[in-house]
Amino acid sequence: MLNYGVLEWTVSLCWVILLFGVLCSFGLGVFDSMDEKMNTVLFSYEARGSVYQKTLLISRKETERESITQSKTKTSQDQGGLTGLSNIGNTCFLNAIVQCLSNTKVLLEYITNKDYINEIRSSAKASLMKRFADLIKGLWQGGISSITILSFKKEVDVYAPRFLGYAQQDAQEFLRYLLEGLHDELNRVTSQSRNLTEEIDDDLSDSLKAVETWKRYLKFDNSKIVDTFGGLLKSTLECTHCGHCSTTFEPFWDLSLPIPHTLRTGKLMLSQCFDLFTKEEVLDGDEMPTCSKCNTRRKCKKRILIQKFPEVLVIHLKRFSLGGRSCKVESTIDFPVSNLDVAAYSADSQVKNLGYDLYAVVNHNGTCYTGHYTAYCKHPYSGEWHSFNDLSVRPISPETHNKRDAYVLFYEQNQSTNL
Questions:
Q1: Interval 193-221 mean pLDDT
Q2: What is the crossing angle of helices 171-186 and 92-102, to 10°?
Q3: Dist CA 417 CA 168 (whole Å)
Q4: Are 100 and 377 in contact (CB under 8 A)?
């Protein structure tokens, strides 16, 4: 016999389950709608005049999305640039320089933002710049431990045949050739003529002479390389006979600082190298120049100071003597990691507190006949230091820098310094 009580209970249970399913579906729809359009969910707030609450919730949702996007970008930046370079045969000199330039923030962003594309000269083949940009972008793509330099090396050999083959080369010399090659392809000046024979008026003040010299320089050489590394030296020559002073200015992309020979294997400060570089010297004997006022060769006093400081200051420590690098100076040179103050070496005595921060170092370990180059670089976004030894990339502390091997120093101006 059919139990009507059980049947009635079963039918009621089915209705409850069906109603629960409808409500769940409606609820999920509401939540989906809230996720897609919060205005629908918050309509009741606005009806009660709670406009502030509605705006606050929407703003919070947008802020969370922006925060996630910024976090992903920051993570990508922090992890990029930690890629090794293959050594295809005594190319450690090239690898070390490339890693330092890769961590030069202003140059890195010039490449990653693709600004260089619009500045490549239409008359230039631009193969060197394109291969260099490809190499830098490869170092920053992340997700791989190392990349090859083969394509870039081939373009270097074409531009500067002195680097053909796989013999050991000087890293600082390579840096100069590389920057010159990139500059040639990015030069904003299209004219090839350099006919500018008119002398700068000798009656002008030194500051006006400097302005005119730099203006003339930019008429022929104007590129991102000049923007970044370009500076101006002031050389003063004083005749000891008549007292006449003549001043000349010369552009530079790096400074080659001498090391006091009395401390060949000792310890000294970077400031002592600057002191020697800017020290007044006497030109006599075979070195006597011609005084423009006496119109004859005279004993003179010469001094070099820095008239215009670059955005990125590259310092080359002259560890190798002339004549085939027959001798290497093994002195430990103590250099500051932050706030290198170079105001004392400015041609303008009114300049105070010219600060630079270290961000990269090229090291040379070995003798004048054989050795190995590595690089220490500070990540331009995370601020962490890493050692780059061809394929190997590992974190280091700036306090552990081997200052006996330091060969080329890369400094960037402080944010508080206005040059």
A1: 87
A2: 50
A3: 38
A4: yes
56-94: per-residue pLDDT in tens?
Answer: 444 555 555 554 444 444 455 677 999 999 999 999 999
Contact 393, 82 (CB under 8 A): yes
Q: Convert the pLDDT of each residue in 237-290 to its tens digit.
A: 999 999 999 999 999 999 999 999 765 567 899 999 999 999 999 999 999 999
Q: Distance (Å, rounded) from C-alpha 107 to C-alpha 183? A: 12
Which conformational region is residue 218 in: left (phi greater than 0), alpha (psi within -120 to 50 degrees), or beta? alpha
Given 244, 245, 327, 372, which residue is catalytic? Answer: 372
- Identify the pLDDT of residue 9: 53
Burial label, 40 (beta-carbon count in 10 A; 0-12, 13-18, 19+): exposed
Whether 92 is a known active-site residue: answer yes
Rounded to whole angstroms, the Cα distance separating 218 from 249 reads 14
pLDDT for residue 18: 56
Q: 92, 291, 300, 377: which is the annotated catalytic residue?
A: 92
Where do we find the tokens 């970077």? Answer: 270
Q: What is the pTM of this model?
A: 0.81
Q: How far lies 247's CA from each of 100, 219, 242, in Å?
A: 34, 21, 15
More confident residue, 141 or 43: 141
Structure-token pair, residue 415: 């944010």
For 328-369, the pLDDT digits (tens) are 888 999 999 999 999 999 999 888 889 999 999 999 999 888
- Exposure on the CB side of residue 390, measured as CA atoms within 13 A: 10
Neighbours of 123 (CB within 10 A): 10
